[in-house]
Queue: 2 jobs
Job 1
Amino acid sequence: MSVSALRPAVEGSREHSHVLVAPQTRRVLPWVFFVSGFAALIYQLVWQRTLFALIGINIESVTIVVTAFMLGLGCGGLMGGALSRADSRVVIRRFAMAEIVTAVFGAGSLRLFQVVGNMTLSLSDGATALVTFLLLLVPTVAMGATLPLLVAYAVRFSGNVGWSVGVMYAVNTLGSSIGAFAATLFLMRALGQQGAVFVAVIANLGVALTVLRLERVSRT
Amino acid sequence: MRMLIAVGVSLLSGAIGLCYELMWYRVLSYASGGTPSSFGLLLGFYLTGLALGGFLVARTSQSPTPRSSADQLSSIAFLTLLANLIGYAVIPSTAWMAEVGAWWSVFPVISLSTSLLGVTLPLVSSYAVRADNMAGVHLALVYFGNIVGAAGGSFVTGYSLMNVLSIDRIALVVLWLGLALAAGVVGLSTIPRRQVLLWFGVLIGLGVLASTVNPPLFDRLWERLLYKDHAPTAGRFLRTIETRAGVVSVTAKGHVFGGGVYDGTASTEIGQDANNIYRAYALAALHRAPRDVLIIGIASGGWSQVISHLPGVERVTIVEINPGYLELIPDLPAVASLMNNPRVTIVIDDGRRWLRRNPDRQFDLIVSNTTFHWRAHATNLLSKEFLGIVRKHLRPGGVYFYNTTDSPEANYTGLVSFKHAFRVSNFLAVSDAPFEPDGSAWKEAVVGMRIDDRLAVPSEDSVALARLQTLSHLMNTPGTDATAVFEEEASLRARLRHAHVVTDDNMKVEWQQVFVRQWLP
């Protein structure tokens, strides 16, 4: 394929590069997405532990939890994509909302898992898989939605898909890796499961408040 | 068409990534002895690599000269090929590094492989997604494909492949899949036909080469990961069973290892006592008439064999999480009869879940000889919450006897969860009824025990009888420090008063050490 085949994308980028975004927002956005990824991995590591204690650590249970987590993220990605077509300010508010939903769920998550785990003890593997998927659906959909939302926002001010996806994906994943290291080397040992989740909740709320503030500043 | 290619490549790339992650986890978990840190560190290094890949794409995307789609697809194919070659090399590299005492230095290699895998999502997005109002929607589709692939890769590898193929075969299958993906991407590109043929030739050649070098690369893999710098002088395992539940190995000396950790020896002999089996016999002194017994974890079967022949035992239920052990036991003469013992029922399940799912089952004796307290998820069997579950399953006067592997926290948690306790080496017996072990009566009981219609302690075995006499004396005169074979409750409470209680939340027995050196008998 010739170079000209890429022209529509480049032209498209010019079309949408007119979206005005305060330089402060451009600078801060990757950082907040970094923190969002940091929180997500803490949740993943803690929730896996909690669910394994409730439904078992045999390979069937492990498969159920990992698959439910991923499918939730995937569904969230689709939902985030659908929600990303709105006006830029709406998109960024939706991103903040996803962080708040994750934080609220996270705050009560361990207690909720206990209650549901006790209620569903006698279920078959299939029914357990369904309940686990539904249990994780709200936070994983919220977490999964953040990447398309933020990339769609970034594409509008950068006009470059490769850069937007690359940077947002990279900072979010880097945040996740730091979250995994922090949980493994410090948080689990020092704070336990509830303490680690509390750190993640604070991180999510911090992200949401920062983004909403930036959006408000850029409006004025 | 571009979207279709992007979603397809993203899906397969996600699947391959998760296949590698599961294989790497099995190997690193085995090498580390299953510390909880091994999964977190693997995830951390894995994600660091993905992030580096993302940054790489972001940087190259800022080039003022746009790249053609043929260029983009060639790059994806090349990076997929490279990622797979490095990904495939991770497991043999871990074994090599283990032999020089530094298996953990493979982590950066994992990051290197995933950094190349990590460019796929942003790169195919850049190839297929236009910078317009639909960018978020289209990216979501590519991302969804990646996640579905990852979930599918995890499911197929963890649930199916690991149950039917050994890890060397799975590594080869995944490498072939990666080569096929690279070939598919090249085939879909518009690069000149000669280049396509060259690509295909290289990929086929690499596939054939990998098939040839695969057996030597993975030779004695589990032995090298277990014995590490002692591997060159260590022999081959007599047997290795790989199932989706884990890896069980038997050494030339008959020691059984589960997931790279010592799991016992199939022996019931108290004389030579290669596995400190006297602790199982000691149960005859801790409960006078244990009719109904639950055992959590069968491992090599030595303990279960002794317990099922204790005086008064009528029914034994064994809950084992790894079915691999059931394949092993029929081949171990000292314990093979366990499989045909009419008093024994074996259930494959998670011990904690089984107890919670069977609230009506009550036992006189519950025994848990599971694993080292520092291993991942050991909390599930040592926490205050678990002891609370166990307590509900004990009949009045019932005893719970469990392996604390000398953890002060695990011992202390038992002390605060039950009214009475008595320590036997690294095992703690707890109950709401007091313990009154009588060494002399115990010795008589053991001397009279029969296993498979033979005396457990043959009358001509002077070594066994002398050992029994010594243990009987020690039982009547318990010690007051951690080195004592037997220790009473008052001494334990005084000695451990500053220890912490293990809870499901604080996981005090885990996470204390990043890596441990496995104990080798």
Job 2
Amino acid sequence: MKIHEYQARDLFRKYGIPVPEGELCHSVDEVKKKISDKDKLRVVKAQVLVGGRGKAGGVKLATTKAEAIEKAKQILGMEIKGITVEKILVADAVDIEKEFYVGLINDRNTKSVMLMASAEGGVEIEEVAKTSPEKIIKMPIDPTMGLMDWQARKVALQLFGDPKQVRQAAAILVKLYQLYIETDSSLAEINPLVLTPDKQVLAIDGKMNFDDNALFRQREIIAMREADENEKKELEANAKGLSYIKLDGNIGCMVNGAGLAMATMDMIKLYGGDPANFLDIGGSSNPQKVIDAMNILLSDKNVKSVMINIFGGITRCDDVARGLVAALQEIKTDIPIVIRLSGTNAKEGLEIIEQTGLPVVKTMSEAAKKAIELSKK
Amino acid sequence: MSILINKDTKVIVQGITGRDGAFHTSKMKAYGTNIVGGISPGKAGQQVEGIPVFNTVEDAVKATGANASVIFVPAPFAGDAIMEASYAGIELVVCITEHVPVQDMIRVMPVLEKHGTKLIGANCPGLITPGECLIGILPSMIFKPGNVGLISRSGTLTYEVVNMLTESGLGQTTCVGIGGDSVSGLYFIDLLEMYENDPKTDAVVVIGEIGGDAEEQAAKFIKEKMTKPVVAFIAGQSAPPGKRMGHAGAIISSGAGTAEEKVKAFNAAGVPVAKEPSEIPGLIKEKLGK
């Protein structure tokens, strides 16, 4: 789960990580009311859950209050990667002497939380990681000890020269780790962390993601969720025990198992088609799940044909077939469907479906070719 | 021979009285797995499928000499269950439970290391040495004893591939579903090393997917350390970046973890990558000179 920058800033402040003053606004009127009349350098930032907002014109500087209101007018309502900007953060802009990057992630390789830091702040850290990996300091954290003071100091010493700044930065790192662990975060970045000319260390921009699997014990974090349209559809599917992701193609896919679902999309692509979605219905033959899945699939108006790909394991193909038939009889649609069944009791399963007259095949490649052919009619 | 498990493996089931635990216990027992006990706190003295239930893993180990455990407890308690098994001296823990919080898995790791415990999963279908021992939820009827090893990050895709292997006459030594999470127990290299040292295994199938760089590391290991042929498949060639494809670990983040990079790494290591799953048996036969 992702949160907005302003929400990350709220969490930073709660944990004692210094951030510049700022106000969240939903309208120009709110900007007029909330910010002080004093003319000072401010930054107006679109609050959207997609990257690249700066390049898209979603971040603008203003020197006066009037200008801040003007910039707010421009940014509110603009589209960034298909998302309409509904909220902006109007924050004090600070003078910057130097920018840094600090972040925490769950690292697959060391199987631990990894602290990363770089003197190359303000830019995409992934770019730095690719072009000059030696510029990134990495410190795996022992979960039984947490981030110890000496470790935070060791990292801060590589970024800052002055002992006072080292202390400020190390304290920020320890607080960020505490926040990361207590909220079951999966990514916490301060980018940039800046040094001001008056030698203050401040978090200017923040990004936090959270582990979906841990949300059950993170009520405060769940309450921060602001899903966009596509995410709402994905969450709705999750609530029904389905895993759905919308893509841009026109062949709908319904598959049991995430790996097989990916392989099915790949197969459609391999044979020259374009998958409309990723959809994993999990391992049951429950007709209701198939009905829910079909409804979600067909709500995408791009879908021209549907490929159902099921491998019957513990759930036998004949049970799956009965479930499919029951579900498809309930859903009346003109969209052509091709079903592929394989695995345990495949023969019995195929027979059950053949009786209904739906096209049914035994291999994935056949099904993909057929679905592509049907999508062109 | 085989890796990790065989007919002598003594298995306990953590969460044996739950719906999934009880169902799969009966399946495993029917396959011939030596299930010696189950754990369900407060239910000691009861029986499930004729198997004695204990309150703690420690009690079960003392009474039965169990050396492997399979976990079906709900996600919030799975990390704790893994640690309990590790402290009790279980050598191999297989965690089937999905949706385990990542921080719980991270906290488990030093405990496993301290006790020398091997972990498979979480969020995995388990493993099987056909004809000898099944631990997990794999559909046993599609497997057949033979000389091919298999490691996979996926469940149903594994069954798909195993079914094709078996139908084309290629049986398996041991098949391991390592799970779809980002922080997991044993991974490609750990298992490739075991297959390399297993006299019965002649070739290995690796089924990877987008996310992370474990496939790239595996490719490097294969090139430098393995004498046995390996064939690979990578799921997620058509997956868009930044989207989690069902599995918690299947995500292309900022251009890293793409299928393309993984295919390239395998090819550079002399490992053929199947374009679709049905090519796998042919590639294995080619490598084995059949």
